Amino acid sequence: MLRYIGGNDSERHFSLINEAYSMFAHTNPLHQDVFQSVVRFEAEVVAMTAALLGSKETASGGQICGNMTSGGTESILLAVKTSRDYMRTKKGIRKPEMIIPESAHSAYDKAAQYFNIKLWRVPVNKEFQADVKAIRRFVNKNTILIVGSAPGFPHGIIDPIEELGELASSMGICLHVDLCLGGFVLPFARKLGYPIPPFDFSVEGVTSISVDVHKYGLAPKGTSTVLYRNHEIRKHQFVAVTEWSGGLYISPTIAGSRPGGLSAGAWAAMMSLGLEGYLQNTREIMEVSKQIQKGIKEIPELFIIGRPDMTIVAFGSNDLDIFEVNDIMSSNGWHLNALQRPNSLHICVTLQHVSVVEDFLRVLKEAVQTVKANPGPVKGGMAPIYGAAGKMPDRGMVHDLLVDFMDSSC
Fold first, then answer.
1. SS3 assignment for the chain
2. 227 FRET partner, CA 20 to 30 A, in 200, 237, 310, 385?
3. For residues 215 and 184, is the Cβ–Cβ distance under 8 A?
């Protein structure tokens, strides 16, 4: 299990957010008039997060606003739904389409299926960033939304958000930035002097942003935020039912009833750490990320994919089967994410890695040498899906295989 908290203060931090959660475990933000303190926690979490990503008053005169959600997937789903309905009102689009780079999160595929939106997934450029020129070629009269990530989950690389913003502005369409991973790192990395390109509401054209508080924000699992440039856009997120015999029903998120304890836990985490705490955490994990990149570059059989901007480092190999390396790493307690196109692995650096970075690099070197000395077909790991040659089988077959697996686990 990936834990973002680590170090000497981890137990104290867990105790704090657990205590905050338990104090408000019985509450439900759906009933705002009853649980007013929880509503305030949520509002302050949203406001503190928004303050990291552009001033409250944006260049276009709007005010950043948003809601807490259950995680990055729900934040993305809501941003897509909101963009769809906003563009229907603004431009009368009835057959919506959205365009995303192939590195964008799979939550957009889910959103496309849920909300009946045609999805175009466009190859990335040679730097593994969103290819703005390629995206432009797919824009048409039905386009409601384009997407950028800061950074993308697979390779930890920030898309050219400024260029995407210019495209969105010129075409009069929405731009969502996925900051689920980067929201509580990039603002602080920039303060620390790292060369971070523009990625937030300071970029004209960005209409919505998703930020997970339960990742590098170190809040309890199940806490994220979805933010909008102004209230005019966000109002399309809400569902209001006025004809029900049970009275008026208004809900801002996919869930109706929600656990208020999570909002309290997120608020407690952010108030406890403060700006200085996040700065110190970012300083440590960015340094470890650089150490890992340096260590991987010293292993001749491996190469790093692109130029990582943050704390995800993806690497592959032209000399050996990287999935065999992954199997050996797993057997030694290092559970890395397996990627495709190209076949590769990535490590998401957290505070837990600060004290064990040398151990990681040692095990990785040993795993590479073991595979190099014992070449052969893939025996485990990703083999059932990718096959020995790392070649993707028919997409329908993969779908059925994965669904059957999920069914068998129920």
1. CCCCCCCCCHHHHHHHHHHHHHHCCCCCCCCCCCCHHHHHHHHHHHHHHHHHCCCCECCCCCECEEEEECCHHHHHHHHHHHHHHHHHHHHCCCCCEEEEECCCCCHHHHHHHHHCCEEEEECCCCCCCCCHHHHHHHCCCCEEEEEEECCCCCCCCCCCHHHHHHHHHHHCCEEEEECCCCCCCHHHHHHCCCCCCCCCCCCCCCCEEEEECCCCCCCCCCCEEEEECCHHHHHHHCEEECCCCCCCEEECCCCCCCCHHHHHHHHHHHHHHHHHHHHHHHHHHHHHHHHHHHHHHCCCCCEECCCCCCCEEEEECCCCCHHHHHHHHHHCCCCCEEECCCCEEEEECCHHHCCCHHHHHHHHHHHHHHHHHCCCCCCCCCHHHHCCCCCCCCHHHHHHHHHHHHHHCC
2. 310
3. yes
Reading the chain (410 residues) residue by residue, the pLDDT tens digits are: 356 776 667 889 999 999 999 999 999 988 888 899 999 999 999 999 999 998 545 544 468 999 999 999 999 999 999 999 999 999 999 999 999 999 999 999 999 999 999 999 999 999 999 999 999 999 999 999 999 999 999 999 999 999 999 999 999 999 999 999 999 999 999 999 999 999 999 999 999 999 999 999 999 999 999 999 999 999 999 999 999 999 888 899 999 999 999 999 999 999 999 999 999 999 999 999 999 999 999 999 999 999 999 999 999 999 999 999 999 999 999 999 999 999 999 999 999 999 999 999 999 999 999 999 988 765 555 544 554 444 555 555 555 655 564 555 45
C-alpha of 143 from chain center: 23
Whole-number Å distance between alpha carbons of 100 and 136:
11
Distance of CA 316 to the CA centre of its chain: 22
Which whole-number Å values give the CA distances from 253 to 73, 113, 351, in the listed order? 12, 18, 31
Task: Indicate the pairing of strand 174-178 with strand 143-149.
Answer: parallel
Gap between the Cα atoms of 172 and 145, Å rounded: 10
Peptide bond before 29: cis, by omega within 30 degrees of 0?
A: no
